[in-house]
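lol ok so funny story. i was supposed to be doing the assay writeup but got distracted and ended up predicting the structure for this chain instead. priorities right. anyway since i did it might as well share w the group, maybe its usefull for someone
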Amino acid sequence: MITRLLTTLAVICGSALIELLQSQLGRTASLHDLMANAAGATAALLLRLSPSYPIVMRWGMGLSAITALVVASYSPTRSLIDVWQQHQSGPELTPFDSPIELERWYIHSAEVSIIPSPFRAQSDSNSNAMQATFIPDKFPAVQLQQFLSNWSGYDRLQFDIGRADDGARGPVEVRLRIVDQQSDFSDRERFVEIYRLNPGEQQRIALPIADIIRQPVRRPMRADSIRCVEFMAVDIEEPVTFQFGNLRLVSATQEKSSTTHPPLP
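and the output, tada:
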């Protein structure tokens, strides 16, 4: 019994160490992941030990194990439901309706949160947006990995991007990078566009899907199997805060707008 208990504690401590290392390497540590791992390990221990106890205690340990399994499965089940709902929502790549959506983003050297949309005078904007504070690093980035991947039949990718009055001086570049499932992530197999924003500036961007598909040098991108959408800064020396919202695909039958836009008023 002591050995099994120590094994369970080792699993929990190992999980905590992994989350700690992630926070030191630019990834986001997840308390939910730690709790799920601990609950799963506890459930396994209870199920393994229960046969050696009287029947009443076995029932109690079994119910406790089931409860622990429910706790362990809650976060991944919630994420799966969120992904399913996102695929059903059509052209919105991410509406930022819930903090759960942040689990679909790969975060590197950044702190993210969902905030009320700061984008002004846009009737089709969502009520929420994502705020990302990039921490000084070589390539701080936020990358959307789970979304509607088939962009065939859509006319353009549209989103709002803004920079907070973060105290950093002068314009800062943020790069949009898009790759498909076949990409090797080299510069010759991805779409890249650079935006320069001053503190407090907002822009609405509309990119023709045809331009995204044609830009990679090595081969045209597959519109029916887009893999990820990434926003990245390069070699920043002080924290810089950006906001992203209204990230969606627009078809030719929807309301038309220009493919170039001035800063939002």
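The chain has a mean pLDDT of 78. Residues 43 and 65 are 4 Å apart (CA to CA).
back to the writeup now i swear
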